[in-house]
Amino acid sequence: MARVIGIVSGKGGVGKTTFAANLGIALSKFNKKVVIIDCNISTPHLAYYLGVKSYSVTLNNVLKGEIPIHYAPIYYNEVMLIPASEELKDLIRVDVDKLKEMIEELDKFGNYDYILLDSAPGLGREALSVLQTAKEIIFVTTPTIPTVADVTRCAELANKLGNKRFYIVLNMVRGRDYELAYENAENFFHSYVLGKIPFSQEIMDSTALGIPFLLYKPNSPIAENFMEIAANLIGIEYRKKESILEKLKKLFKR
Question: How far is Cα 232 from Cα 165, in angstroms, rounded to an integer?
Answer without folding.
Answer: 14
